[in-house]
């Protein structure tokens, strides 16, 4: 394209120096050459922009495809964590339901009471999102609605479940610390203590709240986002 522009520039200059042509003929030829040059430059810019835009949208398609897979895995991880919360809550409730007589019987038998300890960690895959966002390419997504849904999911919902999990873990390990502090007490006395029972009850409430956050907030948005991505990719 540069060679073509240079060729017509030389022709225009040559025509300007042409003594055989009248002023009108020179003007006409030079205008034609200028038009060709302007057209060539405009075409070059348009082709470059079109190529760049096409490349950007290819990157968006790859990103959305990877994001869809991430979201599907997020849902699987969330379901797994939900089951672990339910399992832990069942274990804590069994402890709360033990009567003083049952606690004494367990102590006399030499058996131990199983106190569930399951630390809930990050379950969302955020690498693809963070990489695309930090590279400044999130603006390549032309569908404003899906872009906002992606940002909302990763910047609000993912942050929310990380926060509730963190709160749960911190409280769980406080409970565990209390058990260590009261290691000199028998399990029967520890688990029959009213304050400790309230602690376990609150742990159950936290677990139920986190399950609610998973079911009511995170999973519906992840599923909705998957549907929107599939619509976009199938266009």
Short description:
The protein has helices spanning 2-17, 23-97, 100-109, 127-134, 144-181, 187-192, 194-233. It has 235 residues and is mainly α.
What does this structure look like?
- The protein has 235 residues and is mostly helical.
- Helices cover 82% and strands 0% of the residues.
- It is built from 7 helices and no strands.
- It has helices at residues 2-17, 23-97, 100-109, 127-134, 144-181, 187-192, 194-233.
- Helix 5 packs antiparallel against helix 7 (194-233).
- The longest helix is centred in the N-terminal third of the chain and has 75 residues, at 23-97.
- It is rod-shaped and about 115 Å long.
- The model has no long low-confidence stretch (mean pLDDT 81).
Layout of secondary structure:
Layout (H helix, E strand, L loop, with lengths): L1 H16 L5 H75 L2 H10 L17 H8 L9 H38 L5 H6 L1 H40 L2
Helix pairs in contact: 1-2, 2-7, 5-7
């Amino acid at each position: 394209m540069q060679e073509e522009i240079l060729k017509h520039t030389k022709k225009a200059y040559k025509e300007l120096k042409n003594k055989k042509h009248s002023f009108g003929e020179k003007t006409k030829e030079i205008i034609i050459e200028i038009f060709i040059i302007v057209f060539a430059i405009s075409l070059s810019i348009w082709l470059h922009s079109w190529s760049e835009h096409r490349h950007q949208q290819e990157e968006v398609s790859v990103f959305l495809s990877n994001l869809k897979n991430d979201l599907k895995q997020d849902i699987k991880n969330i379901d797994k964590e939900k089951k672990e919360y339910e399992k832990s809550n069942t274990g804590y409730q069994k402890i709360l339901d033990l009567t003083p007589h049952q606690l004494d019987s367990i102590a006399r038998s030499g058996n131990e009471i199983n106190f569930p300890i399951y630390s809930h960690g990050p379950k969302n895959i955020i690498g693809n999102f963070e990489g695309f966002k930090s590279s400044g390419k999130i603006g390549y997504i032309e569908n404003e609605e899906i872009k906002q849904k992606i940002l909302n999911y990763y910047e609000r919902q993912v942050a929310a479940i990380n926060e509730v999990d963190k709160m749960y873990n911190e409280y769980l390990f406080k409970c565990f610390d209390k058990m260590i502090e009261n290691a000199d007490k028998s399990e029967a006395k520890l688990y029959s203590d009213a304050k400790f029972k309230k602690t376990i009850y609150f742990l159950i409430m936290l677990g139920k709240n986190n399950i609610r956050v998973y079911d009511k907030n995170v999973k519906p948005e992840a599923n909705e986002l998957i549907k929107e991505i599939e619509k976009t990719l199938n266009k």
